[in-house]
Amino acid sequence: MRGKIVFLAGLVAALGAGWAGFPYAIYTSRLEPVDFSHKIHADKAGAKCEDCHAFRDDGTFAGIPTLDKCAGCHAAAMGSTAAEKSFIDLYVTPQREPPWASYARQPENVFFSHITHVKLGNVKCESCHGALGASDKLPRYQQDRISGYSRDIWGTAGRPGMTMNDCIACHSHQARQDSCLDCHK
Amino acid sequence: MKTTRRDIFKFAGGSALGVLFTPAPWRLITDTALWSENWPGIPRPARGEIRAKFTNCSLCTAGCAVRARCVGDQPVSLAGVRGGLCPFGVTGHHLPYHPARLRQGPVSEATAAVAEAIAKCGPDERVAVLDLRPGRTASWTARRAMAALKSGLYIAPAQSPVAVDLSKAKTVLSLGAPLVERWGTPANVFAARDGFRLIQAEPVESRTAALADLWLPIRPGSEEALALGLAGQLSTAETAQITGLTELQLASVGQTIASCRLSLVIDKNMSPAVVSLNVKLGNWGRTIGPRAEAPVPREWEKAAPVTELAAVPDRSVRVLLIDESAPGEYLPWDAIEKKLAPENPLVVVFAWSANGYGRHAKYVLPTPVYPEALDDIPSAIDSPAPCFRIAAPLVAAPAGVVNPSEFIASLAGLPPSDTLRERAAAIHQAGLGTLVTYADAKSVPVKDVKPDDFWKALNAGGCWVGQALPPANPQAGAATVRAATVRERLPRATDDLVVIATTPPAASLISPLFTKLYQESDLLLAPNCVALHPLDAARCGIAFGTHAILETPNGKWSVRVLTDSSVRPGVILAARPEMAGAQGKVVRA
Question: Given 2.40.37.10, 1.10.150.20, 2.40.40.20, 1.10.760.10, which CATH number is that of B491-588?
Answer without folding.
Answer: 2.40.40.20
